[in-house]
Amino acid sequence: MTTIKKIAECTHVSAATVSNVLNGKGGASEAKAREIRETAERLHYTPNLLAKRLKNQHSNTIGIITEDLTVFNTPEIVDGVDAACEAMGLEIILGNMRLYKRYNNDFTDTQRHQQLLDKMIEHMLSHQVEGIVYIGYHCRKLVYLPSRITVPIVYAYCYPLNQKYPAVIYDDEKAAYDLTMLMIQKGHRQIGAICGPLDSFHTLERLKGYQRALYENGILFNPQLLQYGDWSRSSGFAAAELLVPAGVTAIFAFNDEMACGVYEYCARNSLQIAKDISVAGFDNRDISADCTPSLTTAKLPLEEIGQTCTRLLTSAIDGEPPKSEITRLPCILLERESIGPCTTV
Amino acid sequence: MTTIKKIAECTHVSAATVSNVLNGKGGASEAKAREIRETAERLHYTPNLLAKRLKNQHSNTIGIITEDLTVFNTPEIVDGVDAACEAMGLEIILGNMRLYKRYNNDFTDTQRHQQLLDKMIEHMLSHQVEGIVYIGYHCRKLVYLPSRITVPIVYAYCYPLNQKYPAVIYDDEKAAYDLTMLMIQKGHRQIGAICGPLDSFHTLERLKGYQRALYENGILFNPQLLQYGDWSRSSGFAAAELLVPAGVTAIFAFNDEMACGVYEYCARNSLQIAKDISVAGFDNRDISADCTPSLTTAKLPLEEIGQTCTRLLTSAIDGEPPKSEITRLPCILLERESIGPCTTV
DNA sequence: CTGAAAGCGCTAACAC
DNA sequence: GTGTTAGCGCTTTCAG
C-alpha cells in the first residue's frame, strides 16, 4: 500500500506537501510538484478514502436502501440515483433488504420489516452517509418508518405515512386518464378495463384516471366493463373472455402482461387488434414494443424518479427546509399500433 | 455524533475501556460494562466504520462492478453476491458502469470501456476493497482487462481473455442439450431451432447442445430447420412462419421471447401448442410461467452464480492459490406444458 | 480490571 | 514554498 508518507520519503518532502500537491492546492514549486506527481504515479498511489473521510468529516456518500433489488422497477430507479450522484460527485452505498426472498413475498409492512429497516439505517449511518433514498418494490403507503434517523431521507416509489418525509412517485392517475382519452378520441365508447387487485395503489389510481376520462366525455361508467385481474397474463386472458362478449370495442389493461393475455384471446378468436378491438397496456415492459401490433402503453419515469429523489435529497442535505410532500412525475405515453379507430356504429 | 470518547466521559472511564466493552472484549466489571452499554444506547451511539476500518486495516468489503445494473440478469446476480456476503459478514460496495445508457449499447469491449473499468477499479481500491466481482451484462469473452489490480477478482456471466482470472457462468450447452433431449424423448424428430445472432456466445453454446442431442440420437441435423432471430418476439414469429411449413413437430426457441413469437404464430394459425406443435424456450422470463400453455424452459442459476463467485473470491482473499478456470453452473430445467408427445407418424 | 499512549492515512492551521 | 503539529474515531499493546 503506497501512502502519502511513502511518497513524502521518496521525494524528500513532508506528507503535508504531498497532500497539497496531490489535491491541487499548490504550495510547492513546479519542479517538486511534478516530482511528487510522478512518484505517486510510479508507486501506484491510491488515496485511502477511509482516512480522507475520517479526516474531512463528511463522506460525500448517500445510501440507497432497496426493498428488493430483483423486482423489476428497482434497478432502473437505482440507476437514476446513481447517475445523478455521479453527476454531482456523490458516492452511493447500496443496502438491499431482499424482502422477496427473505419473506417469500409475505411481508407487507410488519414490525419485522421495521427491524430490518432499522438495522439497515443503522448500518448506513455507520458509514456516515449524508442522506438516504428508500426505494419501494411497489408503490404504497409505508406504515413502519425508521425509528431513528439523523440524516434526510426521501422515498421513491412509495410514500411514508403522514407524509413525514418527501416522496417521489409517478402519476398513475394521469397516465391512465391519457390512455383512456386516447381511446375515446379514436371514437371508442365501450371501453373495458382490466384492473389489478383492488388493494393495489396502482389499481386505484389508474381506475380513477380511467373514470375521469369517461366522465369528462359524458360516457356512462358501466361497472360490467370492469374486470379484476392479478397482473398476470392469464388473468388478462380470462378478463378478455368476459369483456369481449360484453361488447367492448377497446380494452385498457392495467399492465402489459394482462394486455398480452388480451392479445392471446384475440389471436385465438380471430380478432384483429387495432381493427376489431383496441388495446392499451401499462408499464412499457420489453414485450410491449415487440408484440404485433406493438402495444400502446405508458412508460414509467423510473430514471427520473431516481434523479428527482437525488435532487430533493441533496437540497435537504444542504439544509433546505424539507418539504414533505409527494412529487408525482408524469409517465410517458407511448402511442403505438394497438389502438385503432372505432368502427362500430 | 456520539463517539466512544463522549461515552467514556459520561461513564468516567477511558475510551479504551468503552471500546473493549462495546466489542465484547471483556476487560471491565459487569457493573461498569452495563453502564457503558446503557449510555451508548441512550446516546444513540453509532460506531464510525471509517475510523474502525482505518485502524483495523481491513475493510471486510468486496466490490461489485456491474456492466449495467438495468440489464435483466444483473440484479439477480448482484442479489446472490449480496446474500452470500451477508452470510459471511462481508460488506459490498456497488459500482455500476451503466454501459448501456452511456454508450447506447455500442461499446463492445473497446479501449474506452477499459478506461472506465480502470477508473472503477481504482475507485474500489480507494475504498480498500479486498476483492472484486465483475458482472457482465451478457456472457462473452472479455478482451480488455484491468490494467492494474491488487486484489483478487472473479468474473460472473462473462470470462476473461486467457483465463487470467476465475469466472463463473452457466452451462448453456448442457441446458440446450437437456431441452432438446426432452423433445426427442417425447418422440420428436423434426425439431426446429430458433437461434439468436450467430456472434452470440449463448447462441453458439445452445446450438452445440442442440446438435449434440440430435447426434446422440441418430437424428440427422437438417440446416433447413435452423433459423436465426435477434432474441425478439417478432423474430420468433418470423422464424415460426418458415419452420412450421417446413414440417417441424417441435421448435426450440433459444429464448422465451422468441418462443412467445412462436406462440403467437400458432394462435393465429389455429395450431395448438403441445398438441399440434411443441415449443421450448430459454431463460425462464416471467412470461414463460404465465403463458398458456406454460412454457417449458431453462432457468438460469443467477443467484448461484453470485454465490459461487463470492465463495471463489473469499477463498482467493484467504490466500488460496487462484485456479483461473471457468466454472459452469447447471441451469434448472423447468418442464411445463408446452412439450407434448409427437403425434405425427 | 483499567488507562495511557501510539498510530491507522490523511488534512488543515499555522510556523518558519 | 515547505514543514510541524495536531487530530478525525477507533483499537491495541502494555503498564499499572
Pick out its properties.
4-stranded parallel β-sheet; homodimer; DNA-binding; Rossmann fold; alpha/beta; 3 domains; 6-stranded parallel β-sheet; 345 residues; 434 Repressor (Amino-terminal Domain); 13 helices
Q: Work out the strand percent of chain A.
A: 15-25%
Fold-level CATH name of the largest domain in chain A: Rossmann fold
Shape of chain A: elongated
Biggest sheet, spatial arrangement of strands of chain A: 2-1-3-5-7-13
Please trace the helix and strand order of chain A, writing H or E for each element. HHHHEHEHHEEEEEHEHEHEHEHEHEE
The rounded Rg of chain A comes to 27 Å
Q: Which CATH class of the largest domain in chain A applies here?
A: Alpha Beta
Output the CATH homologous superfamily of the largest domain in chain A: Response regulator
Chain pair sharing the greatest interface: A-B, 47 and 47 residues
- Mean pLDDT across every amino acid position of chain A: 94
Secondary-structure-based class of chain A equals alpha/beta
In this structure, how is the largest beta sheet of chain A organized?
A: 6 strands, parallel
Helix content of chain A: 40-55%
Count of domains of chain A: 3
Count every helix of chain A, treating DSSP H or I runs of 4 or more residues as helices: 13
Q: How many beta-strand elements of chain A? A: 14
Cα(first) to Cα(last) distance of chain A is: 80 Å
CATH A-level architecture of the largest domain in chain A: 3-Layer(aba) Sandwich
Low-confidence stretches of chain A: none
Oligomer: homodimer
Keywords (chains A, B): DNA-binding, Repressor, Transcription, Transcription regulation
GO molecular function (chains A, B): DNA-binding transcription factor activity; transcription cis-regulatory region binding
Protein name (chains A, B): LacI family DNA-binding transcriptional regulator
InterPro entries (chains A, B): HTH_LacI, LacI/GalR-like_sensor, Lambda_DNA-bd_dom_sf, Peripla_BP_I
